[in-house]
Known about the structure:
- The structure is a homohexamer.
- Chain A contains 12 helices and 9 strands.
- By secondary structure, chain A is of the alpha/beta class.
- In chain A, the strands form 2 sheets. In chain A, strands 1-2-3-4-6-9 form a 6-stranded mixed beta sheet, sandwiched between helices. Chain A has a 3-stranded mixed beta sheet with strand order 5-7-8.
- In chain A, a hairpin with a 2-residue loop joins β1 and β2 (34-39).
- In chain A, α2 packs parallel to α4 and α10 runs antiparallel to α11 (254-268).
- Chain A starts with a helix and ends in a 13-residue tail after the last helix.
- Residues 1-14 of chain A have low confidence and may be disordered.
Amino acid sequence: LLLPAQTFIRTMSSSDGPTSPYTTLTISRPAESITHVQLHRPDKLNAMNKAFWREMVECFNEITEDKDCRVVVVSGAGKIFTAGIDLMDMANDILQPKGDDAARVSWNFRKFITKYQETFSVIEKCPKPVVVAVHGACIGGGVDLITACDIRLCTQDAWFQVKEVDVGLAADVGTLQRLPKVIGSRSLVNELALTARKMYADEAKSSGLVSRVFADKEAMMAGALEMAGEIAGRSPVAVQGTKINLIYSRDHSVDEGLHFMATWNMSMLQTEDLTKSAQAAIEKKSPKTAVFSKL
Amino acid sequence: LLLPAQTFIRTMSSSDGPTSPYTTLTISRPAESITHVQLHRPDKLNAMNKAFWREMVECFNEITEDKDCRVVVVSGAGKIFTAGIDLMDMANDILQPKGDDAARVSWNFRKFITKYQETFSVIEKCPKPVVVAVHGACIGGGVDLITACDIRLCTQDAWFQVKEVDVGLAADVGTLQRLPKVIGSRSLVNELALTARKMYADEAKSSGLVSRVFADKEAMMAGALEMAGEIAGRSPVAVQGTKINLIYSRDHSVDEGLHFMATWNMSMLQTEDLTKSAQAAIEKKSPKTAVFSKL
Amino acid sequence: LLLPAQTFIRTMSSSDGPTSPYTTLTISRPAESITHVQLHRPDKLNAMNKAFWREMVECFNEITEDKDCRVVVVSGAGKIFTAGIDLMDMANDILQPKGDDAARVSWNFRKFITKYQETFSVIEKCPKPVVVAVHGACIGGGVDLITACDIRLCTQDAWFQVKEVDVGLAADVGTLQRLPKVIGSRSLVNELALTARKMYADEAKSSGLVSRVFADKEAMMAGALEMAGEIAGRSPVAVQGTKINLIYSRDHSVDEGLHFMATWNMSMLQTEDLTKSAQAAIEKKSPKTAVFSKL
Amino acid sequence: LLLPAQTFIRTMSSSDGPTSPYTTLTISRPAESITHVQLHRPDKLNAMNKAFWREMVECFNEITEDKDCRVVVVSGAGKIFTAGIDLMDMANDILQPKGDDAARVSWNFRKFITKYQETFSVIEKCPKPVVVAVHGACIGGGVDLITACDIRLCTQDAWFQVKEVDVGLAADVGTLQRLPKVIGSRSLVNELALTARKMYADEAKSSGLVSRVFADKEAMMAGALEMAGEIAGRSPVAVQGTKINLIYSRDHSVDEGLHFMATWNMSMLQTEDLTKSAQAAIEKKSPKTAVFSKL
Amino acid sequence: LLLPAQTFIRTMSSSDGPTSPYTTLTISRPAESITHVQLHRPDKLNAMNKAFWREMVECFNEITEDKDCRVVVVSGAGKIFTAGIDLMDMANDILQPKGDDAARVSWNFRKFITKYQETFSVIEKCPKPVVVAVHGACIGGGVDLITACDIRLCTQDAWFQVKEVDVGLAADVGTLQRLPKVIGSRSLVNELALTARKMYADEAKSSGLVSRVFADKEAMMAGALEMAGEIAGRSPVAVQGTKINLIYSRDHSVDEGLHFMATWNMSMLQTEDLTKSAQAAIEKKSPKTAVFSKL
Amino acid sequence: LLLPAQTFIRTMSSSDGPTSPYTTLTISRPAESITHVQLHRPDKLNAMNKAFWREMVECFNEITEDKDCRVVVVSGAGKIFTAGIDLMDMANDILQPKGDDAARVSWNFRKFITKYQETFSVIEKCPKPVVVAVHGACIGGGVDLITACDIRLCTQDAWFQVKEVDVGLAADVGTLQRLPKVIGSRSLVNELALTARKMYADEAKSSGLVSRVFADKEAMMAGALEMAGEIAGRSPVAVQGTKINLIYSRDHSVDEGLHFMATWNMSMLQTEDLTKSAQAAIEKKSPKTAVFSKL
């Protein structure tokens, strides 16, 4: 079913620029059912400009509706994953706020922040698993982005930085909300957010921010695609139900989570995927040999 | 107070079969105040059949009422801890659901799932700490089971697998709800649940799924009993209050947890165990030398 | 801006006794904007007596109002960090409770516990980050204390012990509520709380309880002050907003956290610190070179 | 479909005593799909003795499983609805508690209260709507009972009394939790619970405790059966889904409620009852003329 | 500031048909800062067809952004307010669901329901108060609509019907979630939802569903506009902050509500509206005489 | 036990001014175990000045500790209950806020609002029931105050006004949080808060804001004292436990409420008040004849 990893890589890196109509993202299909989203402003270190914030939402809304996509891989083109917010492009909105008095300026800031929070929440609302592959550096807004993804991988040379206190603000598009639920050491979370120090790949692995570290970007992308292939080959009813319930569980008590799960699966267990998967199991085949209807 | 570890092991392994009226569980008392529950269908790799689901509830309900039991150790007989759900035995219920239309089938599935969720929730509702010792393999439903236990140990050769996506369904009897609250890396939890890959003992330890790894089953059982003995020797008012409040805290904010704790301890501090323990401390004795009333 | 580390240490260790009006705490200012709070009953192993519980509240209330303080470092004088509750001093209140019947005794215990819970909750309510540096031992009430701090450091020879079950009670001033949200392995949390076993520095680090381990106390204090300096040099609007939102996030769902964050930052983004920090960034200077108004 | 009201009444009042194996309840089927549960210790004013608490649970568990029952009517035999707890029968358990110290007595009381709370929670967990018809008086435990029912009716001569403060305790089997969510005036709820004053039918109606008042018991029972008939004639998928979601909504935010509702109805909309009901509507017939499968 | 009521009415009734691009809604501005949204399919009794569901979202999104609008009035053209869902127009979607198996049908239904829930949630998310004026009848989906509005008025001849159980389904676009939080008698809510009986104006008033009843539609529209004028004349910072916090409070505990309120008002109190309003008060003028900036 | 009502009144009205050290409150003991708190700035219509906000906290903290007080009655001296915030006295703090930039002004406002919210939250945290008796008018901050009380009474000539939108702000010391949980009609709550219209005694009664209306102040005070006497005569363990659990229930789901209740009563049922009350019941005496220990 899957092409050899080398081929994927080639497919993935063959993109010469953003995929129209996007100006900051390159979209490709390296293998069946897998969508690859590449941050693509390499000359700007994939800094997040106004266009990026809008395009991420459009892109993930499309992916959510795309029945041919079952898994998403996110990576960055060029030297690093992302340098975070493009302050030059966005200085206007942040440093010259609009409004007749402080209350009205606040009102407008709130709409602005809420809109930007939505950008990464769409990743979470998209029921398809998102694997993010980080190389080089992942700074500021980049951490907001990756904590909204489901599985995090990185290269040995990667580092991560919660940069916001350095520019005089508390991180407000997701890092402070999601990072503590993503990694297990609260002391470390607080240290990173309060001192803006860099965290390197080894600590990222031991703290649980990433679940795998690869030698270099090529190896990582091959690994990311292999993992995406594993997921894409399984029942989308099972996979997407799993993502939805994992996120639900994070935000609820165990009792609430179980109650929701039972209500969810009362219909989802009626899928034919169950029979198909069971059949494969009986025949000692991989579940990936079964052919599942689109979802 | 405690027998030498060797004796425990012998006591524990001397069981030749399930303890009547159970057909899938062997119950024994390897040492004072300790109940040992063994999954006991070794020829079926301790797969969970219909009888098992019912018997676990009965067994833990009994344990909850048994004033002579203060700690529980759970392990598996034979080659592995458990192969998870016995699909053959349960295929009927899952693959040939009952109901006149899809809504009624859903209704019945919901009752079915809720009942099976209860099976492991009884472990959590039982106020006595439950130490689970895993050897060989712990697959599918086995992960649901162990995440409902309080302390997890394993052997060096053990592996764990969230198997459900392989059979076309989202895990619905506890894994998706409890696993993320049990281990610290969300990236890892998602990876395990979405790819169904195996996790070995070392990763289980470093990720925090288990708190100790032992060379082999014999060493693990000795360790489990020693730990159980440590717990059993302390005030049951303190120990069981600790379990109840740890579970409450998991599902509530810190403020709510503190409020509940104060309301709990306002009566529990009136126990004579406090004086007895204090007395032991003054006399430089272990708290295990005190004799506490049954609870 | 900062003095050489050696100087700090000297400043910090020059205190010969508690700072009036306190009898159990020594307060100093080792560097600009940094307050050092030292538990100071070295002859009693910094055991927490009645005076201590009251003084911690007064001390942190003062710190909260002190516009010249931006970060707090907490450490212990003498051989160990703290031996926990001073049972001798407090035996009266606990072992000879007041009240005409069991209900009235409970009523009084509840007020008593709630008051003591407040002692450490003030650390959390104080918006200024608190770095705690542990050497030697941190026992019982000490664990309650440090889990309410933001960043935890320790020396190589430090050990930690959730001691309460040994004295016949469930820990009720914060450990059971905060520890599971502080470290990533639930199995470990349960083991520590149910068996009262010691945990040493290495396990404290790998489990995430502390984020850094230092060779000895001198190195740790230098490290703590360096870290405190990093924090103190940044915008207090950013830093204190970060602490407040990190704590809010712990106790709420991600959606709730984002909603609160947007409402928080709608005004906080109007700070001049943002422009000052941006200016520093453009000039390639450290954010610590900017001069921020007091908060 | 329905018998004339007079016939119902006769059927209902023809019961000469409790229905075996119950000793405190009379169960009958006054009309198709309707189960009538009568509190039946008329000589003791239907006071709730130990047997009653156990039998209510058994009775509602049976009703939950009884596919021929779609609605339940609860009423009381004899002069009044119920005098509440039978203190004589239960004095032992309450006034002579068991346990070696105050903590252990508390432990046992907690189990006792939790068990008794369950008695009325089964009414809420039963997905079939429960209409309760109160005549004469409804005292103490009676208020706990009726607030767990879905629809409350009463006769003109009925009165209600939250009696617990009169016997030295805070109502602990449901009144304090449910009454404030049942009626709209918090000032009134507090007044009733704190002063134990009687509330008569008119105030019960205007405050919303009951939704209808009838002239006498005969009229009320006819009205209750007519209302039960209206409910019993409609799709059980619709009716029971409505009850489950109304209770879920009470305990959750609107957003949570909507989320759960969508997950619930995603399968329930697949019922054939929808087509049958739509067909009846097109033919200008009552939905009650459709024949729905059992649930 | 306000025109005489008669003029409003004329302005409001002069609309001859839907306002392009809408096909089911007529939008007008009867007075400064007031937007009037009229359900306008009078020949179909304002039944909610597919176009309606889409247009309500678009319409309220526009209103949210329209700085010239401060209050919204919603009413229905023709003989009644609305007959609810247009089953003919929507039968396709509901009765002939799409999907390869029951799980996939469920998946699609969930998206469908969620989209329709959004239709009325936009009313709640719009920070501008919405006054709804009901005449004739308000059936099924109409109740979902009005419970999402802020203030409900009706004519003496109006009636309300939670119709869903009559067509074989549990109300899933808001009634079951919002109605119990809108009116004070739970017994009545349950009765209405489980029996689908009609509720007339007097009961709607005494139960709190509407806060005012008018003799006829003309009087009601005059009253609605007068009330809208009262609101429109006050500070939009105060008014819209009030709506946002009233909705927040409904879904949170009092403590959470207070915490959010303080965080909200910390910026909103910096509005110049406060000074302007205070000035008016000192000069003994109505707050409506002040001129407030747009929001 | 109780004095004739006339005597109470005299006792209550004999106060010639504030009770030292208070300058805005008169405190008296009209009957055993009853504390009467009178807002006492009659020449300023009991407007709430800075002193008042501070004194209310001190006063209720004292009452909480006063074992001789079991119930509190709050009323206003002079022509009306209260005109709300004393804008003249507080203009400084609100209209000339302090802080170097908008963020720092916000920071200070938040502390200010939080402090003022505390003023009325102390009423709720005081476990002793508070009956409030309103005559004349209750405006703005007065509504915040009375919604934090437990039982509300008023005279026939009383009116209530949520005044805040008139002065350009959203009510932020409790009204928006508590009023919707106090009265049953959401449409009415929204109308009152958004239009600032007056509500008179009859509507206050029918909507459930007050539970009783009296002809005049004298009758109301007699009624308030009689009701306070009823409460004061009952077991303080039962009464105060009832208040605490009623407030807990308001902010939690029914399941959470029951769980907390069981944990509360496990100790409180061990009170001797239970036996004393039971004894009184057997002897057919009023529970008020029993003599209960202080709490």
